[in-house]
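Title: [Solved] Gap junction protein 3D structure

Original question kept below for reference.
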Amino acid sequence: MNWGAFEGLLRNVNVYSTAFGRIWLSLVFIFRLLVYLVAAEKVWSDDHKDFECNTLQPGCTNVCFDHFFPVSHIRLWALQLILVTCPSLLVLMHVAYREAKEERLREIQGDNYRPIYANPGKKRGGLWWTYLLSLIFKAGVDVVFLYIFFRFYRNYTLPRMVKCKLPPCPNVVDCFISRPTEKNIFTVFMVAITCVCVVLNLIEATYLIGKRCHERLEAEGGH
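Solution (posted by the thread starter after getting help):
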């Protein structure tokens, strides 16, 4: 996947984000995407190759690896990054739709043109709901993946050695995981950053709702 192009699209979302949204994007780029590309992929590149069991029984090592690593950390993180950033692209598409609509009206009405949106990127009406729902969806995706990681890898950690007795293993065999300490450090780091991102999304959603309520109260008080 071309992560550079993906990053370029997301940077455009900064224009329409609040201060909390910009902090969230910075965390995603610096502490999640860059860590994933620069370090995490290399750390997990040998997870299957260097997963060793003390048996020569054909198929035993593969079966045990699949049991203890049902889904690779790195693939889960890639899927999580894609799902958690797609809602931001929807906001960008909504703004682009507003701008295209304004352009069509300008061409049709000519000198009689009157803009529908004073500022197509201003979070009002449908765009406000799109932005708010994107925040809730992003927080929800991160929470779901935190739960998935916890279910697959208890306490988000990997042991140095696991015991496996699945067929076709002839008996209980000892299997050794490659670089578990290094992988645990990266896992805890990614989990911590994910938690921070969830908190930022919830704070931003609260800020948007609070700001809208405040504007409504001011408008009602002015009449």
